[in-house]
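Hi V.,

You were right to ask for the full record rather than a summary. Here it is.
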Amino acid sequence: MTGNREAEELLLIEEADAWFEYLEATRGQSDARYGEVEPWAWARLAQRLRAISARREKLRPAAA
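Predicted structure:
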């Protein structure tokens, strides 16, 4: 059970890191640059969140 809890905590940290990466990429950009960067940053965030969600789903059956 401890291993699952640690794995879940690591996934939470990775999720937070994904959001911080998005914010870092988009924060403080000019309007023109934001328009260029934001779609890429959002796609990267969505990709990372999907991967985290998939790993989280693999943990759930192991916990049951």
